[in-house]
Automatic annotation (TrEMBL):
This is Purine-cytosine permease family protein. Keywords: Membrane, Transmembrane, Transmembrane helix. The chain crosses the membrane at residues 64-88, 109-132, 152-170, 182-202, 227-246, 267-287, 310-331, 352-372, 378-395, 416-435, 441-461. InterPro entries: CodB. It comes from the Bacteria. It comes from Sungkyunkwania multivorans.
Amino acid sequence: MSQFNIEEEIEEIAGGEFERTPVPKYSWKGWKSFLGMYAGEHAAGTEFMIGPLFLTAGVSAFDLIIGLLIGNLLAVLSWRFFTAEIAVKHRLTLYYHLEKICGKNLVTTYNLANGILFCFLAGAMITVSATAVGVPFDMEMPKLTDTMPNGITWIVIVIIVGAVISIIAAKGYSTVSQAANWMSPIIVLAFLACGIVALNQLGVRNFDDFWNIWGEGSEPFPGQVKFTFWHVVLWSWFANAAMHVGMSDLSVFRFARSSSSGWTTAAGMYVGHYMAWIAAALLYAVYLKTPEAQTFLTNGQAPPIAPGPLANNAIGLFGIVAVILAGWTTANPTIYRAGLAFQAIIPKVSTFWVTIIAGTIATIAGIFPAFAMKLLGFVALYGFILAPIGAIIVFEHFFGKRVGIIPFYAEAKKSNFNMAVLLAWAISFGVFYFISIQFDVFLSFVTLPAWISCGALYLIFSKVLQKYH
């Protein structure tokens, strides 16, 4: 049996996802696969939450519209010139790539943290879908301040939604990609329709009317952070920090024929993180004019954000279906990524079953509304935790040879623990998290400094420590 056939058989046993070998040429995919996935994933469940949350943060029209243009461009450039570039060079999952640098013992901790954080994010999207499923049942929707489930109906619906999403994700990348391709045009159309209907409900007749929805901004709602221009730019850039500068999407772009597939992320950013965020904000703006919402504000409370009822109010049944699918297409690839993280820890277990485990954790998280209702803060936190590890891969790839360090050090030296990685991440995380807490600095403001610090310190510590081994 040839080496190729042996590897092919091993991958078939492991689930055919090439978790510990480079993706072979026969499995490379064209740009259309990524276009559908990114458009579906980012014009999706998070958008129904994030758009309204910008309104609760009192953002101004200029800060939102121009800030999102710039922040999303920076995100696309990060995917194209960092993530996709490195992915097609090595064609490894993030987890196996890190293992070759960090050593198995150290990367296991990272994989566990990464997988759990992805599960929590997927859980927030299951929450979003559940708000739509609950509309026909006249279910009480979670409030912005809720942390615990508000009834048995909510729990049952979340479990059913989570089970279906988990099974789809467990079928592997091809199934995830196909599901996104099928659903994303429907979801994008729904967001566009929601935005148009909401503009009509708000009485918008020209650009000035549209601009005045946000105007010069306002005070944030109770319990929310005030967003400025730089909040919007940096938050939108680093909303997916774990995926691009954090290198998680090495696991996705390793299937790409060329690094130019990285440009397809623009479909996600400008359809999803631009048009869809603004459309969702418009839905919430309509709700804020209702007597129910005004009662909440009069009582010093933030009106609830429930994507299902908001979309239903605009476009009826189509809106309910769109919200269900939107949560689905975000949770699917997120659970898939989490499954790969867990599979790196327990490689003898098939990808199917570790993804089911990830889906189960995500479903449990989805029962608790807090992850969805505090999404701006949670996304900033998980990006801040995971992104600096990606800097180690980026700095080794672009500067390692110039500095003179051994690439894939743990693999080369058969080491299970690369101290340079731990020191670089711990110092960067510790210093900048302390700055954030001590001086009340929003985490997105310190994500880039922490990322650069981690990459630079890794090169310095590697240069010093490798001399003694």
